[in-house]
Write a structure and sequence with these properties.
Blueprint: H1 12-16, H2 20-28, E1 31-32, E2 35-36, H3 47-52, E3 56-58, E4 67-73, H4 95-109, E5 113-120, H5 124-133, E6 136-142, E7 149-156, E8 160-169, H6 170-180, E9 196-204, E10 210-217, H7 226-243, E11 249-254, H8 262-269, H9 274-283, E12 287-288, E13 291-292, H10 293-296, E14 308-310, H11 311-316, E15 339-344, E16 348-354, E17 376-382
Parallel strand pairs: 4-5, 10-11
Antiparallel strand pairs: 1-2, 3-16, 4-17, 5-7, 6-7, 8-9, 9-10, 11-15, 12-13, 14-15, 16-17
Helix pairs in contact: 6-7, 7-8
Length: about 375
């Protein structure tokens, strides 16, 4: 992978004549008691500059009827606990503080559709107003059970016509799945989660084609509930396929799954390996009648979308090296890929992807990066 490098052009004379005031400022804005108290002392590129330098990996030409999709977990304030992200400077801890950096990055990305996760309830109206000034409409869906963030799908009003929306909670999908297997739905109470799935259906004005977008953020919990995460992915995909009437759809978001894990394997292959089945049965986040969640709903852990493809895997031959680079509590350093853009390859062609920048110089969010995740972007065109 090509990693963007930026070198400050500072002359030796300037270094020798640097003022005592500047030296004092640089010392002041360093690290105090393990926590950043201000801006970094190093001259660094902006997120706008870094985004402009990201490599476009292109396999086919982008035409007049092409459109782009951005996916980005932007880190909600409700997850910025006072004792968490100790490396993040004080002036970069809230969504409002990081807003200018986020908008600078989104302006460069210039996605026709922008799927955001972890959009804070209080921040959402302000972000929506800013995006409206840039020509976007939005559908927003807040998580359940009191969690004060959710998912937002923005789309350019001069590129798309809004058709329909479906807002689904994991708890509703779980109860429906249990009922279909003639299992007492009260069993779902022990597996209740706040996660949601946002589906938006649009008409692409230049092509006249209908496109359905699923925006997902799955359960993480340090990968300790992969039976729940995998089920969430499977149930959401089934809803997306049904809503799209087996036609053209895209599923983008933070899947909280590495490529060797069951949720990703299921999406890629349509079923689970025997080792994954044993793993999910053993996790047993929930049990009912002495059966694990996986054993109760094993029929749900599959899909029949044979043309479902990952855009980065299709064009690069591999997923990004990483899309998450944090260590929020000082005990869970993350340097893995969790975010993906999946699409129906029979009806859509992935023209190009915007490569990520590699590994940031320090854990994020920081004075440069506005989130603990990295953004993804894919440009598509319709096959037919």
């Amino acid at each position: 992978m090509k990693i963007v490098r930026w070198v400050a052009n500072i002359s030796q004379n300037f270094l020798k004549t640097r003022s005592q005031e500047e030296l004092a400022f640089r010392k002041m804005t360093g690290v105090s008691n393990g926590r950043h108290t201000g801006l970094s002392s190093r001259v660094q590129p902006t997120i706008t500059e870094l985004t402009k330098q990201r490599e476009v990996i292109k396999v086919s030409s982008v035409g007049e009827k092409s459109f782009s999709v951005v996916s980005y977990n932007i880190l909600a304030d409700c997850h910025m606990e006072p004792e968490w992200y100790q490396y993040t400077p004080d002036d970069s801890r809230t969504a409002q503080q990081r807003h200018s950096k986020l908008m600078g990055e989104l302006d460069v990305l210039n996605g026709d559709i922008v799927c955001l996760q972890e959009v804070g309830e209080e921040y959402q109206p302000f972000l929506t107003s800013e995006m409206a000034d840039r020509g976007y409409k939005v559908e927003y869906f807040r998580k359940t059970m009191g969690t004060r963030e959710g998912s937002a799908t923005f789309f350019k009003r001069d590129e798309f016509e809004f058709f329909d929306v479906q807002k689904l909670t994991f708890n509703e999908m779980l109860e429906e799945a249990l009922e279909a297997e003639n299992i007492d739905v009260s069993a779902a109470a022990s597996c209740a989660r706040d996660h949601i799935f946002l589906i938006v259906q649009l008409k692409h004005l230049k092509s006249g084609k209908v496109l359905t977008i699923g925006n997902i953020h799955t359960i993480w919990d340090n990968f300790s509930q992969l039976d729940v995460t995998t089920l969430q992915v499977a149930l959401a995909l089934a809803k997306l396929v049904r809503f799209a009437e087996d036609s053209t759809y895209i599923m983008a978001g933070d899947f909280n799954s590495r490529q060797n894990m069951a949720p990703y394997y299921l999406l890629l292959n349509g079923t689970l390996s025997e080792s994954h089945k044993k793993e999910l049965a053993a996790v047993a986040t929930m049990k009912h009648d002495n059966k694990s969640l996986f054993e109760l709903l094993e029929n749900c852990y599959q899909h029949s979308s044979e043309d479902l493809s990952s855009s980065y895997l299709s064009l690069k031959g591999t997923e990004p090296d990483l899309t998450n680079y944090d260590d929020y509590d000082g005990q869970h350093p993350a340097d893995w890929c969790l975010d993906y853009i999946w699409y129906t390859s029979n009806t859509l062609e992935a023209n190009c992807v915007l490569d990520t920048i590699g590994t940031p110089s320090s854990r994020i969010p920081n004075e440069v990066f506005p989130s603990d995740h990295l953004s993804l972007k894919t440009t598509f065109s319709f096959n037919r």
